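To the wet lab folks,

You asked to see what we're planning to order before we commit. Fair enough. Below is the target structure as tokens, and below that is the sequence we designed to fit it. If anything looks off to you, flag it before the synthesis order goes out.
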């Protein structure tokens, strides 16, 4: 029942330009967003749903047609106008587009489009290289520079760098590029060496900060010049698990169990711990928004639960043999859809499990589908 509703939610959001973030025309959700369209489209590939895959192709072309001179891909396109971010640019938009384009071509075997897009893809990869700023291998993102655009992470962010590894890996496969394959392997090694406690003798990005950082059962959220942000970033860790990064999954799974016990449910927070008004980072939150303040404690990026990233977590855990945790998350989400309506809201507050944000969201519909595959 919910699977069909999720698919129908996505179908209603497919336009001539591509997959919109939502069929609900609220704020700026009725646009072709790079990250939303691509994640939804990749879900369509997993499902082998040709309608969604066709929507993905349209999205890829629409976004490619608005590539900036430096290779950057728009965050979103609406009415033939491109936005690259308002308060700050979005690093993950360019990365998701590369991933989506190459995953689509790997699946569809669309050779003509593969040749048409090759220069644009390599130009986008070149743009990412400039965003290292120090030529040392990790991508640097400004505050609010990715999907969590009203949150506090910045610098060498786990999520963005894991995505970049995926982009390098899939591009290397599609274009049979040995140099990119080696760069992908190097990027993976850099992340594993710098985002967790380890005994590797490889030189660290920030040796002083690394020594002071606390060991966690997950990969740290970000590294900046002033040290590590040791928060739990569910999105970054979920994608790392999906892509085969070296992590103690027994310890990680135990951590997820502890989170579930602390919150009293399996709609796990996208960032943890939650930032409260008396915390030092609150001042980074309270003015960082475009329309209205959403990051109250347990809401939105500040401890809210996002089905899209729970979906990636479930897919990653199942791929690595952790079926039970995935099933608990799926059952929890289905229970909420049953009790509070299968409208695929943007996120749930983790204190009272209230559905919040934009309705009919492809993100959340895709998250549910990822949990079931």
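Sequence we intend to order:
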């Amino acid at each position: 029942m919910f699977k069909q509703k999720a698919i129908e939610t996505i179908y209603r959001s497919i336009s001539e330009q591509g997959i919109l973030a939502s069929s609900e025309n609220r704020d700026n959700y009725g646009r072709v967003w790079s990250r939303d369209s691509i994640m939804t489209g990749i879900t369509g590939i997993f499902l082998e749903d040709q309608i969604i895959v066709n929507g993905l192709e349209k999205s890829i072309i629409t976004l490619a047609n608005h590539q900036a001179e430096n290779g950057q891909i728009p965050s979103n396109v609406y009415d033939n106008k491109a936005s690259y971010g308002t308060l700050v640019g979005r690093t993950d938009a360019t990365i998701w587009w590369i991933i989506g384009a190459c995953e689509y071509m790997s699946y569809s075997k669309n050779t003509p489009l593969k040749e048409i897009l090759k220069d644009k893809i390599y130009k986008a990869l070149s743009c990412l290289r400039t965003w290292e700023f120090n030529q040392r291998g990790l991508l640097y993102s400004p505050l609010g520079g990715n999907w969590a655009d009203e949150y506090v992470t910045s610098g060498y962010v786990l999520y963005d760098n894991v995505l970049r590894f995926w982009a390098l890996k899939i591009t290397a496969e599609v274009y049979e590029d040995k140099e990119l394959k080696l760069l992908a392997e190097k990027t993976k090694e850099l992340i594993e060496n710098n985002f967790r406690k380890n005994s590797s003798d490889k030189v660290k990005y920030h040796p002083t900060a690394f020594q002071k950082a606390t060991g966690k059962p997950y990969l740290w959220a970000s590294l900046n010049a002033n040290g590590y942000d040791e928060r739990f970033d569910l999105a970054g860790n979920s994608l790392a698990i999906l892509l085969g990064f070296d992590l103690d999954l027994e310890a990680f799974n135990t951590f997820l169990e502890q989170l579930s016990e602390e919150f009293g449910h399996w709609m796990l927070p996208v960032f943890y711990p939650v930032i409260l008004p008396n915390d030092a980072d609150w001042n980074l939150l309270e003015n960082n928004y475009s329309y209205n303040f959403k990051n109250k404690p347990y809401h939105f990026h500040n401890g809210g639960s996002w089905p899209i990233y729970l979906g990636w977590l479930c897919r990653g855990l199942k791929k690595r043999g952790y079926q039970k945790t995935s099933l608990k998350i799926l059952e929890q989400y289905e229970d909420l859809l049953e009790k509070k309506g299968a409208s695929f809201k943007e996120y749930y507050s983790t204190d009272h499990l209230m559905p919040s944000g934009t309705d009919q969201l492809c993100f959340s519909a895709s998250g549910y589908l990822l949990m079931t595959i």
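Structural context that might help your review: The mean pLDDT is 96. The first helix runs from residue 2 to 11.

Thanks,
Computational group
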